[in-house]
């Protein structure tokens, strides 16, 4: 567990330092994010059963173009062709599976750095929140999807500049690595959408009704009829269910109402608030509407950037320094506990522990 705790403690320390200093250092940000990439990229036999599935896929992939386009392997047949292509290319240049993972870890971490640096403020608190809420699952387990997510996040600039064709092109590229990326198209239309608090609360209760009625599987089957790609896989996913994480409910309800209460000042403190606020809400509503539906764990990952960006502004939105300090400590303690819990419970406590690296 030590490597994980080192990363956590460094990010906490930098969050405190820059909270007091009021100045973000992009070089320190790059340093710790590269550490994250090295930690995930050099992992050896950890990350749950997906580690072995992806290893098997890499060992079985062919470097011939015809096999990339139309693979004969059963698992690769249902794998997105973009991911097959980068595996084949890596294998072609002589990389083994562990070297491929390391390259992937560094590439994804650098892209994460660009996203945080370009689109957010409060770099280190946002990074800390990502470490606690998404890093383990998306960097260690959801290997294809983190590529898709980061391509989508990189394309945020096209939403902000209202260039739909360029944005759609990047989302389609992302869908070549994970077909779920297509859902990110919605953010082009939610940007700057006027969402009054009363309407948000109505949507919140609708999402609870959706969850209580277990509408998720039927809704996904309906949506699949209109998707240009990935419809068959989505239908297969519609039969999967997951366990309920009560802590998500305990966490999100007070955070949402706190944000709504202090919305005006938080909007002034959050870079690109009009873009991230709808993502923040979508992330929450997905968790409530599809709380027992495992596939939504993957879908909600695209919107987590909005969730953590809005939350990171909370400590900066109080009047007195004492109030700001207390809120920062509360956030750090809570989300650190979320991170530790994920380490301890994923795959019965053996998914991420003990940490093993093929480098050391």
The main sheet comes to: none
Based on CA atoms alone, the radius of gyration comes out at: 20 Å
Anisotropy-based shape: globular
Which structural class should the secondary elements be placed in? mainly alpha
Q: Give the strand tally.
A: 0
**Residue share in β-strands:** under 5%
Can you give the mean pLDDT? 89
Report the uncertain regions.
none
Percent helix range: over 70%
| Discrete helix count | 21
Could you spell the SSE succession in H and E letters?
A: HHHHHHHHHHHHHHHHHHHHH
Distance between the termini: 14 Å
Write the layout of secondary structure elements.
Elements: H1 2-21, H2 26-41, H3 49-60, H4 65-69, H5 74-77, H6 81-92, H7 97-119, H8 123-140, H9 143-154, H10 156-160, H11 164-175, H12 186-190, H13 197-213, H14 216-224, H15 231-237, H16 246-261, H17 263-269, H18 273-289, H19 295-299, H20 304-311, H21 321-345
Helix pairs in contact: 1-2, 1-8, 2-7, 2-8, 7-8, 7-9, 8-20, 8-21, 9-11, 13-18, 14-15, 16-18, 18-20
In short:
The protein is mostly helical. 71% of the residues lie in helices and 0% in strands.
Key terms:
globular; mainly alpha; 21 helices; 360 residues
Overview of this structure, please?
The chain is mainly α and about 350 residues long. Helix content is about 70%, strand content about 0%. It has 21 helices and no strands. Helix 2 (about 25-40) packs antiparallel against helix 7 (about 95-120), helix 14 runs antiparallel to helix 15 and helix 18 (about 275-290) crosses helix 20 (about 305-310). It starts with a helix and ends in a 15-residue tail after the last helix. The model has no long low-confidence stretch (mean pLDDT about 90).
